[in-house]
Design goal:
Elements: E1 2-7, E2 10-13, E3 18-26, E4 28-39, E5 46-51, E6 57-59, E7 67-72, E8 77-82, E9 91-103, E10 106-113, E11 117-122
Parallel strand pairs: 2-11
Antiparallel strand pairs: 1-3, 3-8, 4-5, 4-9, 5-6, 7-8, 9-10, 9-11
């Protein structure tokens, strides 16, 4: 059993900040890439930011300079610091991780998703 749990979402005014956290739990040996996606009503889910196991990052053009993704491998946690928030950032944010599971039968990879956390930015 593995699980990703997001936290930190909420309602903020434009220009404000939020920090999202996503903690992975279960029989996890290590984690490869981790990422944040978001989905607004009527739109497709889109990649917001990603970070590799080595710390290389990638951001959507719409959030560059405002959002920062980071990870704490000791805690199996990925973060998304969101600054200068805009109403168009309003969406459900989802955590994604490529996990390496340590099971009795051996090691396996699993692409896992959290349930999402709502971020609402008012004007």
């Amino acid at each position: 059993q593995v699980q990703l749990v997001e936290s930190g979402g909420g309602l903020v005014q434009g220009g404000g900040s939020l920090r999202l956290s996503c903690a992975a739990s279960g029989s996890i040996f290590s984690i490869n890439d981790m990422a944040w996606y978001r989905q607004a009503p009527g739109k497709q889910r889109e990649l917001v930011a990603a970070i590799t196991s080595g710390g290389s990052t990638n951001y959507a053009d719409s959030v560059k300079g405002r959002f920062t993704i980071s990870r704490d491998n000791a805690k199996n946690t990925v973060y998304l610091q969101m600054n200068s928030l805009k109403p168009e950032d309003t969406a459900v944010y989802y955590c994604n991780a490529d996990l390496i599971l340590d099971l009795s039968s051996g090691y396996y990879t699993k692409d896992s998703w959290g349930q999402g956390t709502q971020v609402t930015v008012s004007s």
